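Lecture notes, unit on binding sites. The following record was shown on slide 14. It pairs a sequence with succinic acid.
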Amino acid sequence: MALIQNETGTTWIDPIEGAIGACVSGVDLRDPLDHEALALLKTALAEHQVLFFRNQDLSAEQQLAFGSQFGELSADPVAGLKGSLKRISYIEDTEERAPAEFPWHTDLSWLSEPPAFGILNARVIPKSGGDTIWVDLYSVYDALSPEVQQQVRQVRLRHRPQPHYFETVRAHHGDEITNRLIAEHPPVEHPLVRSHPVSGRPALFLCPLYAEFIVGLSAKESASLLASLDEHLDNPEFQVRWQWQEHDLVIWDEASTNHRALGDHYPAHRRMQRCSVAGSRPYFQKDS
Ligand code: SIN
């Protein structure tokens, strides 16, 4: 357990046993972090990949202010095209709007520069269900045999928005925005093994939600290799599962994790306030 003590109190970082992630206590995220506390949280995020905070009742503005201490905030691609400065969004599940139940993913991996960090603040939480699970992509890479590691280090994975994403955007924002979105966001190829921009460690940069195929392999070879790699994401030893309480805040490293939210709370209401911090173009450094 790491801690710092300063005039605002004691901040504790308590790693979750046997998994990735750490719980942080003794800090009020509505206030700006002092230099020491911010440095502690950045180090903890690099080390534990997902940080959980209880009892953080943040307005949209307070969440954006918290996130901006970790880097420039990202705009949603649609909001960006509409010239909006909106950086906050909501994931809202209701009886009329069932949970998306997306498979494992890193957010917006189909951007040439996907986000570095995701941040969620729980606004309305069902009595049961609706947990989110994160999986450690360093461990997934480490679990591969040396032969498979050698193979995946040499290839790129093509990412694209989900096929129905553009149709949803068309229904809500019309043809002009959708056509510009398609033109400005062709599929991107990222290295399948990604060197982490802070730790330098290799992570298997999978993303079943957005992955299209492994470049240079036949469709059959690509599907078969991806299926065998994706299986590792379901290994509970590499995961942390979070049971939300109202006003929990979670910040996670998008470069070294995938996540997915469960939809077993349907038809109960669940509302999450989200923003993300901009990232950089994924790369693979051969000696990592
Ligand atoms: C997501 O799948 O990106 C959202 C995670 C959540 O709602 O917990």
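Take-home: The chain has a mean pLDDT of 94.
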